[in-house]
Amino acid sequence: MALSIGQSAPDFTLVDNSLTPHTLSSYKGQTVILAFFPAAFTGVCEKEMCTFRDNLGTLQSSNARIFGISVDLPFSADAFAKKNDLNFPILSDMNREVTKAFDVLFPNLANVQGLDVSARAVFLIDAEGIIRYAEVTANPGVEPNYEAVMAAAAAL
Asked: Where in the sequence numbering do the catalytic residues fall?
């Protein structure tokens, strides 16, 4: 079962698409949105990350930072970010450690044995490191509720 509202978010360090490390605890004092997605260069994932890109101004006005997270290599994440003009970091969880820590591992994507990816999930973490919004879609083809994410960010 994925982490839920009221729980502390597990700390982690991952590199982004430009190989810059990001440690969650270094963002204490800020609102952080973690948007886990299954795979770069897939239709629904592109639509999701582009929707967050297009709403970055709204999120920033709520003092929220957003990070995409997938199990893709940082080099793939970089090509994905450039192709879609993403204006926020895409973190590489290639060892699946953060995906497992948040309990959002989606095994056998497309019924391919061993193709274990991040589920489509969004966590909003407050300035103290507490999860204030959590959504994990049962099907990776379903987008998150963007309006609910924006509203939760604005409420903090």
From this structure: 45
- 100: domain CATH number is 3.40.30.10
C-alpha to C-alpha distance for 24 and 115, rounded to whole angstroms: 26
Range of the structural domain that residue 136 is part of: 13-155
Give per-residue pLDDT as tens, 20-69.
999 999 999 999 999 999 999 998 999 999 999 999 888 888 889 999 99
User: Residue 119: CB partners within 8 Å, gap ≥ 6?
Assistant: 2, 36, 38, 99, 104, 105, 106, 136, 137, 140
Does the residue 104 lie in any domain?
yes
Which among 54, 123, 118 is positioned nearest to 84, based on CA atoms? 54
Residue 146 lies in a domain: yes
1 domain residue, yes or no: no
Parallel, antiparallel, or unpaired for β 121-125 and 131-136? antiparallel
- What's the gap between Cα 156 and its chain centre? 19
The structure tokens listed for 107 are: 């095994």
Judged by DSSP in three states, 114 sits in coil
Taking the model in full, what pTM does it have? Answer: 0.94
- Tokens linked to 70: 């997938």
